[in-house]
Amino acid sequence: MAANKKRRKPHLLSHTRPTSTNRKPSLSSQATRSLIRKHHTLQKRLHAALSNGDTAAADGIRAQLAASGGLQKYQEASIQGQSAERGGDTSKVLVEWLNELSPSTEIRNGSTDMRRLRMLEVGALKVDNACSRSGIFDVTRIDLHSQHPGIQTQDFMEMPLPSKGTLETDGFDIISLSLVINYVGDAVGRGEMLKRVGSFLKVGPRWNFGSTSTSDSVYPALFLVLPGPCITNSRYFDEERLERIMTALGYAKLRSKLSKKLVYYLWRYVGVEAGRAKNDVLFKKQEIRPGSQRNNFKIILQ
Questions:
Q1: 114: Cβ–Cβ under 8 A, 6 or more apart, which residues?
Q2: pLDDT tens-digit profile, the chain (302 residues)
Q3: Do 103 and 65 meet the contact criterion of CB atoms below 8 Å apart?
Q4: N or C terminus: fewer CB in 10 A for the chain?
């Protein structure tokens, strides 16, 4: 376990997410949420201490993480939180949306008359979620600490970018970032992850790429899931701010949904030029919701 902590990269979520799906829930929902919240809080404090060069504080926080069960206990809680018994498969929402939005030539439900769409699932937790069972996708699953043969060990931020010549074969029609961005340790790192997504998406004529009309196609697309409070209760962030950032990165919103705990988005990538935005747009830290009970979640785009 100590070795895992030494390899920890604060700007990533995927390496902390569990991949085993065989355990049955043993903690109550309240206990599971409490453990996950505590782990996230300690990770944020650890990131701040390391950023400030405070090794003594960082060592103390690592000791607290170990005392609370460390990575193993957090993984167990995360598995239970994502279990089918607790309605944790976020990809069910994506499959429902795609069946609503996509014409029959794009959604084949297992038919072999056309090739399946390529999907990249970052921070993959399971190999049998709704997307995997849908028959729509050939899924590439990555996680920094995979323990399942169906999930590749890969850091998304270090994943080789496809070239223009290989994008059609090596790129993806859709990328899933479900509960990934919120675990990246700093706001700038979250922005960098969002910026990187577009480099992996196929942009050829097959999807009428460059058109801003959402009726032309669903793809290439990004499925984004965040904890609800990141949008509804942040001191520095809200849905309008997110939409401005995504527009600057070249996305058009197709669908959104706010549940009791999560917020879901489906974005079509139309390209920075088509989105009438520039890559050098800056979104800096700015308070938009004052209040002592707000959280500090934010995304900074540089």
A1: 105, 108
A2: 445 545 444 444 444 444 444 444 456 666 666 766 666 666 667 767 776 788 777 777 777 777 766 655 655 555 555 544 444 789 999 999 998 887 543 444 444 445 689 999 998 888 989 999 998 899 999 987 777 899 999 999 999 999 988 998 899 999 999 999 988 888 999 999 999 999 999 986 665 555 555 555 789 999 999 999 999 999 999 999 999 999 999 999 999 999 989 999 999 999 876 544 444 456 788 899 999 999 999 999 88
A3: no
A4: N
The residue to which tokens 């308070």 are assigned: 287
Place of tokens 């993984």: 75
